[in-house]
Please model this.
Amino acid sequence: MGKSLIQQKRGKGSPRYRAPSFRYRGKADFTGYEEGKVISASVGDIVHSSGHSAPLMELKYSNGETSLLQAPEGIKVGDKIEIGKDVEIKSGNILPLKSIPEGTSIYNIESNPGDGGKFVRAGGAFAKIITKMDEGVVVELPSSKRRTFMPECKAVIGVVAGSGRTEKPFLKAGTRYYAMTARNKMWPIVSGTSMNSVDHPFGGSSSHAKGIPTQSARNSPPGRKVGKIAPKRTGRHKR
Model:
């Protein structure tokens, strides 16, 4: 029997499951800077983008360029920020990790120098610089995991705005549904065992009762390769 799996529909990339990027305000990062020079920028506006969990600030740089960037807590329209290795340590300023003191809260950390920022970008998130070594700078991420970055990678000083976003309850399933739909997220996620037999290999036969093992062979055909795909071992692990 043919199956109509939701993950296969989404993976196909049809318009129904494509991200609504036409509603996004744009890419959020900061412009590069030349070594030894300081670039200043002013905050032109604070905007909302459905593709980002944090409010964005529109930056107008002294060299004529413009960009969007996650706004830090306490920023307002008209404030000035600076990019450089010797600028002041204040919220919104952008410095290389090697120039930021230990214990400082940072966000939007570059993975490689010049990429504009890849780590710690969600609303209310921040990381902390733990220690500096010759081979790199150790940063504690919001997940409490520690990662070593190159000293030349830049980051923004402060905490991403929108920290109360997760504290407000949705209260109703409908509210959660529309919030997830705005970003084209699949919700709710239904267990395969609770589906009908036409929708999933685990479905049917008295609702959630499986009836078949969840292990799937490596050479299973599309539509059946679900569950534990070619696991090294199954069953209870005995010590």
